[in-house]
């Protein structure tokens, strides 16, 4: 892979983000990030490249992405879906191409929608499971 340079613009202030070590933020190095010092907005890079994972995110956006991930990941961690079909389902709910369905790229409004649709799905599936005798079979097999 070539070491292509990326010009990453902060979506909040329009300045070019700096390519710095993440220890500037975390105190420990987790690899390189793009950082806007004005907005304290940042984003990580794809492993082994300088390609940013998405848009820089400020604290509020990071908080909402974290929440959206926790909520959505529950769907496939609990095996209501395989991971792949969970993302296809989410893409459909969001009206996005599955290739563009990355919570790490979502804005606050999109994150709120992820939480909303995931919760509705969980409420629905739990109603259905109750009707059909619950999830005890799955839990029992998981233990053994
Ligand atoms: Zn900025």
Write the layout of secondary structure elements.
Elements: E1 18-21, H1 23-26, E2 32-36, E3 41-44, H2 59-77, H3 83-94, H4 108-131, H5 136-143
Antiparallel strand pairs: 1-2, 2-3
The structure holds zinc ion.
Zinc ion is lined by residues 10, 12-13, 15, 36, 38-39, 41.
Can you walk through the features of this model?
The protein folds into 2 domains: 1-56, no CATH class; 59-143, no CATH class. It is 47% helix and 9% strand. It contains 5 helices and 3 strands, in the order E-H-E-E-H-H-H-H. It has a 3-stranded antiparallel sheet. Residues 139-144 have low confidence and may be disordered. The structure holds zinc ion. Zinc ion binds next to loops.
